[in-house]
Design brief:
about 55% helix; eight-stranded mixed beta barrel; alpha/beta; binds magnesium ion; TIM Barrel; Alpha-Beta Plaits; five-stranded mixed beta sheet; binds ligand C2E
C-alpha cells in the first residue's frame, strides 16, 4: 500500500464505510439495457400497429389492430419511467433522448401520410417528457438528502471527523480483510478543567482545533503509516494505524500526533497547552474485535492515568485486565523489597557432554504468607510501575555475591547468567551498577553473562546497541534470550555483539513433532554459529529432544532433563560434585 498517499486511501476507506452503512443504489447495467430494449421493442410495435387498418377476432368481437398501440404506448411509458427511477442521471438522459428523438418522426409522419391519428402520440410524448423531468428532479433531491443523512451518520458534527460508528465500521472492514493494525485510544488530560474555567464554547473550539491538527497529519501521510483519526465522543479520540512494520513505527506515529497536540493553542485570547494519554492495542495480537480492541486500549489509558508516572503512551498487556491482582502484586513487590523477600534460584546449564557450564539466576518473590510468586507474574508489573531496576538490582547483587564466593571457594570455571530487562538496561547508571557488582562480588567479567531479549533492538536500537557495546567492552558476556519469540530479524541479530543464542522452549517442545520443526531448530543453530554465537537450547525435557540437539550440533542444554532451578545450597552441592 502507498504509505505517502494516506489521505486518498483514507478517503477511499471512508467512502466505502459510508456506502456500507446505507445501501447504495447500484443497480446492474444489464437491467438498464433490458429496460431500454423493452422500450425500443414497445415503440416499434406502436409504430407497426398504429397505422394498421387490419382487425382480429377476439371472443366473437372484431378488434382493430391499431387499438393495441395504446397498450404498448402505456408499456413504453412504464419502461421509460422505470429507467429514470433506477438509473438516475443515466436513465433520465436516456429517456429524454429517446422521447425527443421520437418527436421529429411523429411530426414528419403527420403531413407525409396525412395520419392525424399520431397527434395523441405527440401529446403523450410531450407529457412524458414533463413527467420524467419532474420525477428526475424529485429523485435527485431525495438522493442528495439521503447522502446528507448518510454523511451525518458517520460524521462527528462538532469536529467534522468520522465518528465512533465510522470507526467501528472501518475496524470491522479491516478485520474482515485480516489486515494488521493498531487502535490507539486518546484521552485528553484535564480537558474538564478547560470546560470549567473557559466554558463549553472554548472547550468546543479546543476540540475542533485538535481535530484539524490531527486530520492534517492523517491526510498528509507525514507519520509514515496509514492513519485514520476519529472522535469517539467527549474528549476521546481514536486513531487507527495501518501499514507499519514494528512497534517502533506505532510509537513514531503516536509521537507525531502528540507533538502537534502539544504546540501552543490560542483560544479566545488564552494560550493553552494540551496533553493526552495514548493507550493502544493491536489486531490480531491483542484482540480480534472492535469492542475488545477499544476496551483494551482504554485499559491501557486508565492504567497510565492511575500510575500518573508521566508516561504518555502504553501498549495493552493482558495483566491490565486484572487491576486488583496487579495492585496486589505491586504491593507485594514493595513489601518484598523492604523486607528482603526477593531472592533467586539457580538453574544449571550444561554443555552437550553434560559438563556444567554455569547457572541462570531466576528471580523469585516471597509474599507475606510465604507463597512464592513466579517471575512471569511479577516482572511485567515491576516493569510497568517502574520497579524493575530495583527488583533486578537485588537479584543481580545477591546472585553475584553468592556466585563470587562460590567460585572463590571451589575454583570452578563457570558462568553466572542474569536476566536484564530493556528498561533496566537503558537506565542511566546501569554501567556503573555493573562495575560495582563486579567489584563487590569479585567475579571476573567474563564469568558474568547478561540475558537480554530481542526486544532491546526493537524498542530503541541505537541506544541499546551503544549500551551493549559498553557492556562488552567491560568483558561481560551477552546472551540473547527467548530467541525466535519476538520480531526475530537477521539484520538485528547481525548487529548485536552477543556471545550466546538461547533458543526458546517453544521450538524445543515442537522439534520432534515434524521434520520441518527439527530442521528449523537446526537452521537457527547453523545461523547462530555462522554469526559467531554459541547456542543453548532452553526447556529441554525429553531424551529424544536431547538426542536430536546432539545430532544437530547444539552447544549447550538448559532444561528439567538435567536440572531444575535450584536453591543456592543445592547449586553449591552440584558445583562441588562436578569438580
Ligand atoms: P527465561 O529467562 O527464559 O528462563 C527460563 C524459564 O524457563 C524459567 O522459568 C525456568 O524455570 C523455565 N524452564 C527451564 N527449563 C525448563 C523445562 O525444561 N521445562 C519447563 N516447563 N520450564 C523450564 P521461570 O523461572 O518461571 O522464569 C520465567 C521467565 O521470567 C524467565 O524466562 C525470564 O524471562 C523471566 N525472569 C526470571 N528472572 C528474571 C529477572 O531477574 N529479570 C527479568 N527481566 N526477567 C526474569
Ligand atoms: Mg533467561
Ligand atoms: Mg528464555
Amino acid at each position: 500500500m502507498e504509505k505517502n498517499n494516506s489521505g486518498a486511501v483514507n478517503k477511499n476507506i471512508l467512502e466505502k464505510t459510508i456506502d456500507s452503512i446505507s445501501e447504495k443504489e447500484n443497480y446492474s447495467i444489464v437491467g438498464y439495457f433490458i429496460m431500454l430494449a423493452l422500450y425500443i421493442a414497445a415503440t416499434i410495435i406502436i409504430k407497426l400497429t398504429s397505422g394498421s387498418r387490419a382487425t382480429i377476432e377476439i371472443g366473437g368481437s372484431t378488434v382493430a389492430i391499431s387499438s393495441f398501440a395504446g397498450v404498448f404506448s402505456a408499456l413504453a411509458n412504464i419502461f421509460i419511467v422505470l429507467i429514470v427511477i433506477y438509473y438516475r442521471k443515466l436513465g433520465y438522459y436516456t429517456a429524454i433522448a429517446a422521447l425527443i428523438l421520437q418527436l421529429p418522426m411523429i411530426l414528419i409522419d403527420i403531413p407525409h401520410h396525412k395520419n392525424f391519428s399520431a397527434l395523441p402520440g405527440l401529446f403523450t410524448d410531450l407529457c412524458t417528457i414533463i413527467a420524467v423531468t419532474t420525477l428526475h428532479k424529485k429523485n435527485e433531491r431525495l438522493h442528495n438528502y439521503q447522502l446528507r443523512i448518510r454523511d451525518q451518520a458517520v460524521t462527528d458534527m462538532l469536529t467534522g471527523l468520522p465518528n465512533r460508528f465510522a470507526c467501528s465500521e472501518l475496524i470491522d472492514n479491516l478485520i474482515k480483510r485480516d489486515e494488521r493494525f493498531a487502535v490507539v485510544l486518546i484521552d485528553l488530560n484535564n480537558f474538564k478543567s478547560i470546560n470549567d474555567t473557559l466554558g463549553f464554547d472554548a472547550g468546543n473550539k479546543v476540540l475542533s482545533e485538535i481535530a484539524s491538527r490531527w486530520k492534517n497529519i492523517a491526510d498528509s501521510g507525514l507519520s509514515g503509516t496509514v492513519d485514520f483519526i476519529n472522535r469517539l465522543g467527549g474528549d476521546e479520540f481514536s486513531l487507527v494505524i495501518r501499514s507499519y512494520d514494528s512497534s517502533d513505527n506505532i510509537l513514531n506515529t503516536i509521537n507525531k500526533y502528540e507533538n502537534v497536540l502539544g504546540q501552543r493553542m490560542t483560544i479566545d485570547g488564552c494560550d493553552l497547552y494540551i496533553s493526552a494519554s495514548f493507550g493502544y492495542a493491536e489486531f490480531p495480537a491483542d484482540a480480534k474485535n472492535f469492542d475488545r480492541l477499544l476496551s483494551y486500549s482504554d485499559a491501557a489509558v486508565s492504567e497510565m492515568k492511575r500510575l500518573g508516572s508521566g508516561n504518555h503512551i502504553l501498549h495493552f498487556t493482558p495483566d491490565l485486565l486484572k487491576p486488583e491482582r496487579t495492585l496486589e502484586i505491586e504491593r507485594t513487590l514493595r513489601t518484598a523489597l523492604d523486607s528482603d523477600n526477593i531472592f533467586f534460584c539457580l538453574q544449571p546449564q550444561f554443555d552437550i557432554s553434560h559438563k556444567l557450564r554455569g547457572f541462570e539466576a531466576l528471580a523469585r518473590v516471597k509474599d507475606e504468607n510465604s507463597n512464592i510468586l513466579r517471575p512471569d507474574e511479577f516482572i511485567p508489573v515491576a516493569e510497568r510501575v517502574g520497579m524493575i531496576d530495583k527488583v533486578e538490582g537485588e537479584i543481580l547483587k545477591k546472585s553475584a555475591v553468592f556466585f563470587g564466593d562460590l567460585i572463590k571457594k571451589t575454583g570452578a570455571d563457570i558462568i553466572l547468567s542474569v536476566n536484564v530487562s530493556v528498561k533496566h538496561l537503558m537506565k542511566n547508571g546501569f554501567i556503573d551498577e555493573l562495575k560495582d557488582i563486579l567489584e563487590i562480588s569479585g567475579i571476573p567479567a567474563d564469568q558474568l553473562e547478561l540475558e537480554i531479549t530481542e526486544s532491546v533492538m526493537i524498542d530503541s536500537a541505537e541506544k541499546s546497541l551503544h549500551c551493549i557495546e559498553e557492556i562488552k567492552k567491560m568483558g561481560i558476556k551477552i546472551a540473547i534470550d527467548d530467541f525466535g519469540t519476538g520480531y526475530s530479524s537477521l539484520s538485528y541479530l547481525n548487529r548485536l555483539p552477543a556471545d550466546l543464542l538461547k533458543i526458546d522452549k517453544s521450538f524445543i517442545d515442537k522439534m520432534n513433532t515434524s521434520d520441518s520443526s527439527k530442521q528449523y531448530v537446526a537452521a537457527i543453530i547453523s545461523i547462530g554459529h555462522i554469526m559467531g554465537f554459541e547456542v543453548i537450547s532452553e526447556g529441554v525435557e525429553e531424551n529424544d529432544q536431547l538426542d536430536s540437539l546432539h545430532d544437530i550440533g547444539c552447544d549447550f542444554i538448559q532444561g528439567f532433563i538435567w536440572g531444575h532451578p535450584l536453591a543456592v545450597e543445592d547449586a553449591e552441592r552440584l558445583v562441588l560434585e562436578s569438580a
